Amino acid sequence: VAAKIIEINGNKGLAEYRGNDIEVKIGIANPAVGDYCLIHAGCVMEIIDKKRAGEIDEIMDMLEEAYNEQTG
Description:
Low-confidence stretches: none
Order of helices and strands: EEEEEH
Radius of gyration: 13 Å
Shape: elongated
Number of helices: 1
Structural class: alpha+beta
Helix content: 25-40%
Strand order of the largest sheet: 3-2-1-4-5
C-alpha cells in the first residue's frame, strides 16, 4: 500500500493509510515525516511521490470495487 509517514521513532514509524495509523519499520528506505512510501508487510520499501501514491490508491479502489462485485 501507499501511506504517508506521520511519525518516526528510531527505526520504527507511524504511517497514515486511509484514515488509519499503522506501525511500520523504516530502516530499508529511511523516509522522513511527510514522505509517501510503499509499505509491504509492515516495512517501508520505497519512498514515492504524492502523485504515485494517489495512483496506487485509485488502483486499490478499483480492486476493492471488483472484489465487492464478485462477492455480492
